[in-house]
Amino acid sequence: MSVKILAIDTSTEHCSVALVVHSQWFVRREVSPRGHAQKILPMVDEVLKESGMTLNELDALAFGRGPGSFTGVRIGVGITQGLAFGAALPVIPVSTLEAMAQGAYRQAGATLVAAAIDARMSEVYWGRYRRQEDGGWQALESECVIAPEILVSQMNSEPESWYGAGTGWQAYQGELSGLPFRVDPGDVLYPDAEDIAFLATLAWQRGETVKAEEASPVYLRDQVAWKKLPGRT
């Protein structure tokens, strides 16, 4: 992994920064419901100093593009754009739901992950992922924001067991217990910059970067609630 990528995530109450430099990792993380805008830049400075790198020496910046807290996602986009403009770096947006799938693999070896973030308003941000041989993840449905009871009614029965990642499993334990497949909720509650950085390295290898001005958040609200991806039944 001969790439140098700095990733940040402020999409939930978990605030984190990670820097990967030729397979070496430098990470800062903190659960803090407020103050992300004040905490994230000092974290960036810390990992850069620890690694001996400067922004201008990096290959790209990555960020959790959502879904998540409206304010938190905007903070992450804005800070990433500011840093990228200053250092003339490309940007890699990464799904926070997919990042939780990677976190579940990193921490628990899970290869089938159902990610559910508490979206408030009696809804969850939802996505299911299957790990691929190259270390990436296949999304089984389009990520969405949806009421748990509607989600339950739209899911098909499956024999496979899933690792449940995210705060949605605790917030809507009763409602989601009606899903027609087994889910074992785990300890991965939030997206983390370390997993965003890992996924960004795969995106970098595929040439999937954007200009700083093209970096945009994904909120999901006011979009179509849920649909299967092409080829899924």
TrEMBL record:
Keyword Glycosyltransferase among record annotations: no
Domain Gcp-like: 30-152
Compartments in which it is found: Cytoplasm
Keyword Transmembrane helix: no
Organism taxonomic ancestry: Bacteria, Pseudomonadati, Pseudomonadota, Gammaproteobacteria, Vibrionales
GO BP of this protein: tRNA threonylcarbamoyladenosine modification
GO cellular component: cytosol
Source organism of the structure: Vibrio aerogenes CECT 7868
Family: Belongs to the KAE1 / TsaD family. TsaB subfamily.
InterPro entries listed in its UniProt record: ATPase_NBD, Gcp-like_dom, T6A_TsaB
Protein name: tRNA threonylcarbamoyladenosine biosynthesis protein TsaB
Pfam families: TsaD
Major location (coarse): cytoplasm
Keywords, alphabetical: Cytoplasm, tRNA processing
